[in-house]
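Researcher: Next sequence.
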Amino acid sequence: MPNKVIFLRISYWFGAVLDGLMVIPMLCPRIGGIMFGIDNFNPGNDYKYAMMVSASLMLGWTVLLIWADRKPIERKGVIMITVIPVVVGLILAGTFAVYCGLIKIEKMIPTWIIQLTLLILFCYSYYVNPTETK
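Model: Next structure:
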């Protein structure tokens, strides 16, 4: 069983690192603009406030994933909570951004690839590990 638990641990840490890194463009809109190809991105204070709130939640989720790693099987439910609503919600938000013309699809594709990788890794990690330990 320990060889299966490694997938949970990889999932927790992969998610935690990505979440931690995403705080940077959330708190530095110019970096976010560069990442997603939004020229001269200079949002107003309403956007900045929303991103500060979101960055706090993102940091909290980073800590939650690290906490789950301390007892990987016992806390594996965190993986599915991360899949739905978090990862699925982020995919839908990205789809909305492309649909409304905020972000060009070619700039969103790398993000979707990472999110899809997370989705597959997290689901596999969750289902390959039994709920109970003996």
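Model: The helical segments are 2-27, 29-35, 45-70, 77-99, 105-128. The radius of gyration is 16 Å.
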